[in-house]
Amino acid sequence: MFDALKTKNEIVEFIRDYYQKNHLKGAVLGISGGKDSGVVAGLMSEALGKENVVGLTLPCHSKSKDAEDAKLVADKFGFELINIDLTSTFDAFHTEIEKLGTYSEEELKNSDINLKPRLRMSTAYYMAALLSAVKGGTYIVPGTSNACELYVGYFTKGGDSVFDIAPIYSLTVEEVIKVGEVLGVPEKVLYKTPDDGLSGLSDEDKLGVKYKDIASVIRKDRQLDQEIFEKIEKLHRSSLHKFNIPKFEIKE
To answer: Buried (b) or exposed (e) across 160-199, using 16+ Cβ within 10 A?
Structure first.
């Protein structure tokens, strides 16, 4: 049986211990308005103190309600929330790409979707370095991916796959929600249908599988229909390149 309070306390201790051992000060993370970033923000705030956590809203042709939900999280946990609009940065990049030739919307779709989290992660690290200089202590960037997303490779290589500490790395979606309930993450954020805020589709629509089924594969807690199981395993296998970078080594 999953004990959400015990897990929450263990994660908070894990964060504090890492910060103390490495002489770190604070955290900078993107607040998307979804449950994962909301839970991580709550964990970091409890572990470090709200004064040492900075949240970023990073709109890029985004829905305004995401920023509204991000503010609910910041108001709940009391950390500073900074808005940096990346729309013009994205558009400037697009303008340069258009000089290379004419591409259809379909041809650009995947590149555009993945550019946004890459711009956002670059901004998070920029702000972490800036705050480290201004506040006289090292700020790092926490990851907000959960175990289900990671298992099927539902993240952007060079985007949300880049982080310095991963508080919910081993939690399934359901477990993240349970920890969020203990933390008091606003219900509107915690229970809303997860989506990437980029494609207009829910996570499960994009993946073609349910998070509860991915969790069952990870935890081995129930038998799945063979077709669903094979689909999840195919997603897992096809994303392994995101974790393992081949390195040539000269043989002595």
So the answer is: bbbbbbebbeebbbebbbbbbbbbebbeebbeeebbbbbe
List the domains of the chain with CATH numbers.
4-193 (3.40.50.620)
123-134 pLDDT, tens per residue? 999 999 999 999
Q: Which residue's structure tokens are 């509107």? A: 188
Question: What number is the average pLDDT over the span 6-29?
Answer: 98
SS3 state at 28: strand
* pLDDT tens per residue across span 193-222: 877 665 667 889 889 999 999 999 999 988
**DSSP states of 63-108:** -HHHHHHHHHHHHHHT-EEEE---HHHHHHHHHHHHTT----HHHH
- Rounded CA-CA distance 109/139 in Å is 33
- How far apart are alpha carbons 69 and 189 in whole angstroms? 6
Give the helix/strand (H/E) hosting 26.
strand 26-30
pTM check: above 0.85: yes
- The dihedral region occupied by 76, where left means phi > 0, alpha psi between -120 and 50, and beta the remainder, is alpha
Task: Say if CB 126 and CB 132 are below 8 A apart.
Answer: no
Rounded to 5 degrees, φ, ψ at 195 are: -150, 165
252: exposed, middle or buried (Cβ count in 10 Å: 0-12, 13-18, 19+): exposed
CA distances from 226 to 158, 181, 209, 247 (A): 33, 33, 13, 35
| DSSP state at residue 50 | G
pLDDT higher than 70, residue 10: yes
